[in-house]
């Protein structure tokens, strides 16, 4: 097409142009317009005449007619060829057969979720109408209120081991977690569907975590105010689940709800999971969590994530020419916000590191150490072998996939980089650069210190009990209920070792134990001694009774267990020598007749010590 040829730009034939225009999204955003390719994650903000030009061409106008319309909107002559060449060079017209955008070749591109389009829009609207959002708000208030007035409902790490077997707990929580994460995304899609936005889905890397995320980039077609509903939908779902789990625990403990204790323990594991997930959503700004999307929207940004990452890199180190060009092409608003938004990145990154070091890493290595003997020592006919193998594959797999996804994302970005963008001159090294550098250095030192501390704690030799015994003997504990039992050495052991472990009391009050404790709560099945002993080490008190104990007595015991809910593990135990046995770390009391006062005194004085 000869009229699109100018001396400085290569030619663009008309069919290429028309096909390219078909794939573009054009949307108004405040005073600007957004032109983008949703399938390639490419968006540029353009002034109104640019949008007028593209719309006119798409409506079948000739280039001359479209240029006239755009010039009228601009109030001056517009260089249409220059503008279209810019769009093409930014990759806006790349064809579907272009190797870098072939379907499914890039993780970052996402997959269209077809079935969401078949959900009636009216049904989707019911989940995100005024009534629904009031309920989500109510759930949020419930969570905040319960969090403030009932600290006994706060989650503890041990809540994860809610079944009488740590491996089953792990597998069950994995499945539940995947399902809940799926519904979280479905909630985003349905909220989008309520507004007529198609849903897409992709896998990506956030820091060291692998996440499945809804691709909300189509939301640019909506005015900014309308985007909050789909962006907040996932958090609304998670808060509702948390409110439900909190409520279940509260009603169980207050004896308002008579459900099997398994439900209460499961609610406890859910609370832990939901609090962790919500913390990630709120603080994981640096990892493009939902709160990032909401903030970026509120701040009027289009690509704040890359702008911030590149700004940070620019200030701390330096950018390559390609990166500098990428940053320059992002737009002034994003670059301005990125000038301070990096603070959120540092804070969020550090918080995530703390969670990794404190929970994820010890949990992963602890589980692997615990399960390896099952895999190497057990026959392949046993359930425990396959269970253990499944958990190890899940644990190792989630970390192994992350670098792969990261590499694909980088490749994707490299291909989609604007080909010709103006280079920025090196900025003058001003005070803001030094503030950034010092902050990064401080966080790096804190992180290194924290990480080393965590590793040291993890590799520490198994504790020596003799010092503890000396301290306990020196300390006058005659006022405490029950009898003192010498503390045994307490290394972590595998299930294979459990058969050979000997304890110095029945039931045990200290000694070798599994790497994972048992969740506090009421059990109707017998617990393994090495798992229960770990709970005693964590300051829990165990109430155990012979299986032939009359049910009214068991009911009385359960009432006490509910009263001291986060501190008690209660279970039947056929190995007992007496009807009822109470144990805490290094302390025991046994008797045959139910005595509420003695039990309350033992639990009340000996928990959390
Ligand atoms: Zn989400």
Entry keywords:
six-stranded mixed β-sheet, binds zinc ion, 609 residues, 3 domains, Glutaredoxin, three-stranded antiparallel β-sheet, 20 helices, disordered N terminus, 12 strands, alpha+beta, 9% strand
Q: Could you explain the architecture of this structure?
A:
The N terminus is likely disordered. A hairpin with a 2-residue loop joins strand 1 and strand 2. The chain is of the alpha+beta class. The protein folds into 3 domains: 101 residues, no CATH class; 190 residues, no CATH class; 142 residues, Glutaredoxin. Helices cover 55% and strands 9% of the residues. A 6-stranded mixed β-sheet has the order 7-12-11-9-10-8, sandwiched between helices. A 3-stranded antiparallel β-sheet has the order 1-2-3. A 3-stranded antiparallel β-sheet has the order 4-5-6. Zinc ion binds next to helix 8.
Mean pLDDT: 81
Beta-strand portion reads 5-15%
Number of domains: 3
Q: Any idea what the shape is?
A: elongated
Distinct bound molecules: zinc ion
| Total strands | 12
Number of helices: 20
Oligomer: single chain
Spatial gap, N to C terminus: 83 Å
- What integer value in Å does the Rg equal? 30 Å
| Strand line-up across the major sheet | 7-12-11-9-10-8
Helix/strand-derived class? Answer: alpha+beta
Low-confidence stretches: 1-10, 99-108, 420-424
Largest sheet: 6 strands, mixed
Helix content: 55-70%
């Amino acid at each position: 097409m000869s009229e699109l040829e100018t001396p400085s730009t290569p030619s663009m034939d008309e069919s290429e142009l028309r096909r390219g225009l078909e794939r573009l999204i054009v949307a108004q955003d405040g005073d600007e317009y957004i032109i983008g390719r949703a399938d390639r994650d490419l968006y540029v903000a353009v002034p109104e005449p640019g949008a007028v030009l593209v719309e006119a061409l798409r409506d079948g106008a000739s280039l001359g007619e479209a240029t006239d319309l755009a010039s009228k909107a601009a109030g001056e002559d517009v260089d249409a060829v220059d503008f279209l060449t810019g769009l093409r060079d930014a990759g806006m017209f790349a064809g579907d057969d272009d190797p870098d955008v072939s379907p499914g070749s890039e993780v970052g591109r996402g997959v269209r979720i077809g079935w969401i389009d078949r959900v009636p829009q009216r049904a989707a609207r019911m989940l995100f109408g005024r009534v629904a959002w009031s309920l989500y708000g109510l759930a949020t208030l419930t969570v905040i209120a319960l969090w403030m007035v009932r600290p006994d409902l706060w989650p503890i790490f041990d809540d994860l081991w809610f079944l009488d077997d740590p491996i089953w707990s792990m597998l069950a929580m994995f499945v539940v977690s995947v399902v809940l994460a799926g519904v979280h995304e479905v909630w985003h899609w349905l909220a989008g569907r309520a507004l007529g936005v198609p849903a897409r889905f992709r896998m990506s890397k956030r820091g060291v975590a692998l996440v499945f995320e809804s691709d909300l980039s189509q939301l640019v077609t909506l005015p900014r105010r309308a985007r909050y509903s789909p962006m907040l939908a996932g958090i609304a779902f998670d808060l509702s689940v948390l409110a439900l789990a909190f409520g279940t625990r509260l009603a169980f403990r207050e004896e308002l709800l008579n459900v099997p204790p398994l439900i209460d323990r499961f609610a406890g594991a859910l609370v832990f999971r939901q609090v962790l997930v919500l913390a990630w959503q709120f603080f994981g700004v640096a990892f493009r969590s939902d709160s990032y999307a909401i903030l970026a929207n509120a701040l009027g940004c289009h690509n704040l994530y890359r702008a911030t990452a590149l700004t940070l890199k620019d200030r701390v180190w330096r950018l390559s020419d390609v990166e500098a060009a990428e940053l320059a092409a992002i737009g002034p608003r994003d670059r301005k916000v990125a000038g301070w938004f990096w603070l959120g990145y540092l804070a969020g990154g550090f918080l995530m590191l703390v969670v990794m070091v404190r929970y994820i890493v010890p949990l992963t290595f602890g589980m692997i150490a615990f399960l390896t003997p099952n895999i190497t020592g057990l026959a392949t006919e046993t359930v425990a072998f396959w269970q253990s193998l499944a958990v190890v594959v899940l644990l190792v797999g989630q970390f192994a996939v992350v670098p792969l996804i990261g590499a694909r994302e980088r490749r994707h970005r490299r291909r989609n980089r604007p080909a010709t963008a103006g280079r920025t001159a090196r900025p003058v090294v001003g005070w803001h650069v030094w503030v950034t550098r010092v902050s990064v250095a401080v966080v790096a030192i804190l992180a290194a210190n924290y990480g080393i501390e965590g590793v040291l704690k993890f590799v520490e030799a198994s504790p020596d009990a003799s010092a503890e015994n000396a301290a306990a003997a020196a300390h006058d504990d005659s006022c405490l209920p029950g009898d003192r039992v010498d503390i045994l050495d307490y290394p972590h052991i595998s299930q294979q070792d459990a058969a050979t472990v000997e304890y110095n009391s029945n039931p045990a009050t200290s000694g070798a134990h599994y790497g994972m404790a048992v969740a506090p709560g009421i059990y109707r099945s017998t617990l393994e001694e090495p798992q229960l002993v770990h709970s005693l080490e964590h300051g829990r008190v165990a109430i155990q009774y012979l299986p032939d104990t009359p049910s009214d007595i068991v009911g009385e015991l359960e009432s006490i267990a509910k009263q001291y809910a986060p501190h008690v593990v209660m279970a039947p135990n056929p190995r007992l020598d007496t009807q009822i046995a109470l144990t805490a770390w290094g302390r025991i009391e046994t008797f045959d007749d139910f005595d509420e006062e003695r039990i309350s005194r033992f639990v009340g004085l000996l928990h959390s010590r």
